[in-house]
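Data card: per-record layout.
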Amino acid sequence: MNPPDSDISLFKRLRFVLVETSRAGNIGSVARAMKTMGFSDLVLVAPRCADPLNDPEAVAFASGATDVLHGARIVASIGEALEGCNFAAAVSARLREFSPPVWTPRAFSTHVAGQGELRPALILGNERVGLPNEIVEQCNVLINIPANPAYSSLNLSQAAQVLAYECRMAAAGDEVDSRGVGFQGDAASLAQIEGMYAHLEEALVAIGFLNANNPKKLMPRLKRLFSRTGLETEEVNILRGIASQILKR
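The structure for this 249-residue chain is written out next.
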């Protein structure tokens, strides 16, 4: 049984559309940018390079994202590329006199992530000339990536990476945790941490680093230092082990 629209993840709903891309390497790079952020739906509109899905440069630049590259569809028109989509966003560094509302990548990602009925598409143009006005004017919004006004030119795959990242963050929501990379143990309890401080203070007095009669602010400063680290149980045990060895000597 298929899940209701509201339960379909943005990772499955979002489509990346590249229009008249000239360099096969850029197509490979976009495939890589998409895969690193969890997206896979790639459509190419009339690419200007021969055999873009198997071109050696495209495969090399995809760098392991060949499943996304080889799964891309090649179509002749923007109409074909947007079949099944009901919300289209043109991506351009150049603002137009007659254009849809201008959004940031974050505004777009927040909007589409929260509405499961939307089948959104991000449309990126040719490396040299960008998107033609007639395509931009057909879109719901125009996405402009905030950049250095004196030099706002982004490589095609760089723009795709920024957009894919923002969409991943919006789709993942609270599940994204910057501390989730690498090993993460159990957080130490307040009692464990207070016991460590007492043990550490005893060791510092024993080696003469801390004057018990005139402690000043050493221990409060050490407590502030450790409070910023988010101590884990194993880390507290290591510090207490160090204190024990100091006291043994």
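Known properties of this structure: The two ends are 69 Å apart (CA to CA). Confidence is low (pLDDT under 50) at residues 1-6.

See the next section for split statistics.
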